[in-house]
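Lab notebook, design round three. We kept the backbone fixed and only want residue identities now. Task for the bench partner: fill in a sequence for the structure below.
Input structure tokens:
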């Protein structure tokens, strides 16, 4: 009996029970992806499934999504296996080594020219990669870091960060760390907003073992290279879920280790930025000790190596005096109200300026402790 030839749409034989949608997915997987998406995760199957689906639903469809499971995690492996999308690749690690190591593992496996990061508790809006690829491909430097605004969603409010773009002569490290408000900062960059060349990410890997300010550390070191510059997509492209009642590893880092880290990257920031990081970011960790000696130690370090301003001192005092939950409530109230009454200016696109040494470096940090 004569057998009908197999259906070879998209260049693949089609099995008798194969659905047309799977043909397209197999075709996409036969091409080199435009973007490799790297998602580190650990023991959060529901959250990482949501993150993966937001990546797979991008308007740019020729992608690969690499989920690096940080240690033994049968629940996450089962949840990801249920998605059944050939663009999804799961890399389980036998031992837990932290998100920076997991990102480096994902970058090592990436096949695309560009790599984008997504934290397992965040989501991308559908055109995120499309917007960033356009900016990356038209950038005036060989190795742009393309970031974007995001929607910061907390249990109490929702608002857009960063609230403004860098001013023409403003050092980027100060833009991203020096406050203009007592309960919030204006500049911001977060891991899930970052897209960069895979070659750059292999040249400048994440620092394994660093538990907080991983974006800040990486961005500072990357922007120290002459061929790198920060490019901002001005529209919000990411949903940043800040459930402050959920345990977060990044919030448990000892203040002393972070102060040692800050001292190690002192040459990459200005004195103003150094003081802002010490009193605001590290101060928020140190304040949990309620120890007067720790209070004096961090303050003395900021004054010795940095140049604090009046608002830095006031910020440090309120961090020590006001309970975190009340600070967060005040921050959300101020930012959410201002987002309605005075939205941030959003030009079509912007490339962050590269100031003279040592201020040419950018920084990635949360100013909202």
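Proposed sequence:
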């Amino acid at each position: 009996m004569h057998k009908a030839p197999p259906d070879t749409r998209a260049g693949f034989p089609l099995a008798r029970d194969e659905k047309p949608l799977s043909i397209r997915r197999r075709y996409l997987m036969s091409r080199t992806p435009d973007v490799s998406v790297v998602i580190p995760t650990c023991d959060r199957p529901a959250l990482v499934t949501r993150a993966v689906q937001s990546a797979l639903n991008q308007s740019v469809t020729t992608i690969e999504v690499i989920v690096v499971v940080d240690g033994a995690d049968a629940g996450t492996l089962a949840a990801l296996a249920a998605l059944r999308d050939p663009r999804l690749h799961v890399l389980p690690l036998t031992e837990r080594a932290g998100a920076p190591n997991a990102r480096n593992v994902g970058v090592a496996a990436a096949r695309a020219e560009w790599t984008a990061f997504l934290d397992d508790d965040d989501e991308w809006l559908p055109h995120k990669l499309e917007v960033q690829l356009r900016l990356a491909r038209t950038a005036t430097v060989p190795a742009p870091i393309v970031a974007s605004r995001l929607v910061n969603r907390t249990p109490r409010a929702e608002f857009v960060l960063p609230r403004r773009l860098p001013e023409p002569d403003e050092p980027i490290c100060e833009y991203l760390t020096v406050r203009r408000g007592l309960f919030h900062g204006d500049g911001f960059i977060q891991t899930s907003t970052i897209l960069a060349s895979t070659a750059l990410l292999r040249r400048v890997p994440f620092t394994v073992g660093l538990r907080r300010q991983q974006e800040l550390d990486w961005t500072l070191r990357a922007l120290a290279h002459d061929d790198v510059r920060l490019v901002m997509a001005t529209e919000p492209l990411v949903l940043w879920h800040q459930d402050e009642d959920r345990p977060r590893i990044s919030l448990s880092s000892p203040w002393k280790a972070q102060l040692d880290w800050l001292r190690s990257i002192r040459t990459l920031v200005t004195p103003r930025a150094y003081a802002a990081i010490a009193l605001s970011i590290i101060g928020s960790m140190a304040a949990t000790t309620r120890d007067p000696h720790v209070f004096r130690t961090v303050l003395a370090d900021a004054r010795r190596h940095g140049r604090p301003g009046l608002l830095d001192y006031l910020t440090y005092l309120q961090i020590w005096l006001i309970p975190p939950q009340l600070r967060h409530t005040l921050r959300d109230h101020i930012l959410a109200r201002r987002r309605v009454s005075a939205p941030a200016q959003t030009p079509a696109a912007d490339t962050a300026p590269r100031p003279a040494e040592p201020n040419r470096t950018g920084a990635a940090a949360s100013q909202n402790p």
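Keep this in mind before ordering anything: Residues 324-341 form the longest helix (18 residues).
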